[in-house]
Amino acid sequence: MARRSKANHIASWRLNLVRVVFLGLVLGLGWRLVDIQVLNTDFLRSQGDARHVRKVPIAAHRGMILDRHGEPLAISTPVHSVWLNPQEVDSSDAQLKKLAKLLNIKHRVLTKKINNNKTKEFIYIKRRLTPELAAKIKQLDIAGVALQREYKRYYPVGEVTSHLLGFTSIDDNGQEGLELTYNDVLSGVPGLKRMMRDSRGTYVGGGEQLKASKDGENISLSIDLRLQYLSYQSLKATVKKYHARSGSAVVLDIRTGEVLAMVNQPSFNPNNRRGLKISDYRNRAVTDLFEPGSIVKPFTIASGLKSGEVTTKTIIDTRPGFYKVSGHMIKDFRNYGEINLGTLIQKSSNVGASKIALSLKPEQLWQGFSSFGLGEPTGAYFPGEAMGRLPDPSTWREIDRAVLSYGYGLAASTLQIARAYMVLANGGILQPVSFLQLDKQPEGRRVFSREIMSNVLGMMEKVVQVGGTARRAAVENYSVAGKTGTVKKASHGGYAEGHYLSLFAGIIPASNPRLAMVVMVDDPQGDKYYGGLIAAPVFSEVMSGAMRLLNVAPDNMPETNLQVAHK
User: Fold this and answer.
1) How high is the pLDDT of residue 81?
2) What whole-number distance in Å separates Cα of residue 390 and Cα of residue 259?
């Protein structure tokens, strides 16, 4: 009996112990639930968010670059890039072989990249996929692999505007040209979004916007795409025809200083830059300097007229067609005898130009050339723009002044020469150049009187007429004022024999100037290398089309045509 009572007591005690333990577990679990659900929610929520919530950047749409008539020159199109989280991707997943094949990369390279970045949560695999490829990758549904929306820059007219516009990096930031100059305006501001990912690392739709993205602004350039095409095609054909090393051309609106066209050869396709060198990207019209040669002779005459040392009636004796200055021989193509300033320009007399320069004080000659904007920036703010070089007059010898008069001993770019010719055309006002479309004419400063510019412009018309050096620059029914240049190329220790720059700078219509254009062809091959034969026809071809496209009234109609028009 006692033994049974003792057994019952032990059983009761064990049962009570089980009850106490069970009750304790229930209370412990209850307390843990309270702790989780009420007291420590922030910590646990943060742990969950750390595994499934991400702050995802929202790409800002880069602004478009348009020509002056609204034609798109650069646009950003939406694309996808593929990325992965190495911590969530199983490198032994068989689907990775399919992914590697789609992306055209080796499977072992992909797995090695995953295994070497296990401490990271985000690495790009390939950027800017085509929509078709992105769709195929999405169908693979690989854990830890996802797509991200981005933008890719596209240039509709390709190589026609490549040096002018430049291009962007893979992150859509400007790297060259006007893309770089106006990068802050075009770029916009990226946004931020909080998004949830599922167990496979794929973002679930929706999300919470933390910061709205701000798209970049569009910019309207001064470029007229029609004139850009004309200039590009004509220059390209000329460089190819004469097997030249390179070439550049610039067209300016004389009234505003706007760049209507700027082209270079050789060019490149900004939509596919594989295999190109950094030197291929440079905008030669802005960055490359050269001795301009005889196209500066109008500046020499203008400087002489401004000083008062010569007048429009001055006669210069160039006989016998050569003379020595400081032991150096200065020659003309032939003996032109006693000539006036108009004939000096028409025949491009080196002897006549140098005699005018030597009649001036060094400071007068320097001031005259400087007034045309040589040796200073053009105001265009193009990346890598060269200032040019106009030597210090205090160091000049007689021979330095003499050769400066016909374009040696100084350096300028194609754009600088075009800006200088704008001074001749607009009545003596030096104003900045602009790549942006302007609402009003910019302020400039008067550097020459209107009378002097008008006189020099009249002399320059003879260059394109019978007996001049640029008959091939003529434009039917329009008067043209211009000047040719044929320059020996500088080399180590002097000038290279048989290597030249062929140039022509012109203004049209001469009676009421609207456009200025400069053409430079570097090292044409063969016996034909004169500016009047190589560069002048480019001017004629482009300006013939430009006058028609801009609806500029003819100012040099033949009398027979005028009689028919009156009838």
Assistant:
1) 83
2) 24
pLDDT above 50 for 283? yes
Residue of 279, 263, 261 lying closest to 67 (CA atoms): 261
Q: Is 303 a catalytic residue?
A: no
pTM above 0.85, yes or no: no
CB 310 within 8 A of CB 359: yes
Half-sphere exposure for 439 (CA within 13 Å, toward CB): 0
For residues 369 and 360, give the distance between their C-alpha atoms in angstroms, rounded to a whole number. Answer: 12
Whether the pLDDT of residue 566 is over 50: the answer is no
By DSSP bridging, strand 53-58 and strand 191-196 are antiparallel
Catalytic residue among 222, 294, 303, 479: 294
Query: Residue 131, preceding bond cis, omega within 30 degrees?
Result: no
**Which residue would you say has higher pLDDT here, 431 or 80?**
431
Tell me how far CA of residue 420 lies from CA of 190, 254, 366, 390, 431, in angstroms.
43, 11, 14, 14, 9
d(Cα 218, Cα 187) in Å, to the nearest integer? Answer: 10
DSSP string across 376-438: S--S---TT----B---GGG--HHHHHHHTTT-S-BB-HHHHHHHHHHHHTTSEE---BSB--
CA 233 to CA 159: how far, in whole Å? 11
What are the chain's domains?
55-220 (3.90.1310.10), 225-270+282-566 (3.40.710.10)
Q: By C-alpha distance, which of 537, 512, 495 is closest to 238?
A: 537
pLDDT tens-digit readout, 134-189 = 888 888 878 878 887 778 899 999 999 999 999 998 888 899 999 999 999 999 88
Task: Give the range with max mean pLDDT: 28-32, 191-195, 276-280, 537-541.
Answer: 537-541
pLDDT tens-digit map of 20-64: 777 777 777 777 766 666 666 665 555 555 555 556 566 678 999
Span 472-527, pLDDT tens digits: 999 999 999 999 999 999 887 788 888 999 999 999 999 999 999 999 999 999 88
Of 471, 505, 509, nearest to 485 (Cα)? 505
Per-residue pLDDT reduced to its tens digit, 289-322: 999 999 999 999 999 999 999 999 999 999 999 9
Q: What is the distance between the alpha carbons of residues 255 and 381, in angstroms, rounded to a whole number? A: 19
DSSP string of 15-39, one letter each residue: HHHHHHHHHHHHHHHHHHHHIIIII
Which among 151, 144, 190 has a CA at the least distance from the CA of 168? 151
Q: Are 503 and 292 in contact (CB under 8 A)?
A: yes
- The closest of 402, 417, 416, 407 to 291, measured between CA atoms, is 407
CA distance 248 to 260: 14
The C-alpha atoms of residue 179 and residue 166 are separated, in whole angstroms, by: 6
Whole-angstrom distance, CA of residue 294 vs CA of residue 437:
32
Q: Going along 364-514, which residue ranges are E strands? A: 429-430, 445-446, 481-491, 494-508
- Residue from 462, 350, 370 nearest 419 by CA: 370
Residue type at 107 in one-letter notation = H
Instruction: For the chain, give percent helix, strand, coil, nearest 5.
Output: 40, 25, 35
**Backbone CA torsion sign across 418, 424, 426, 429:** positive
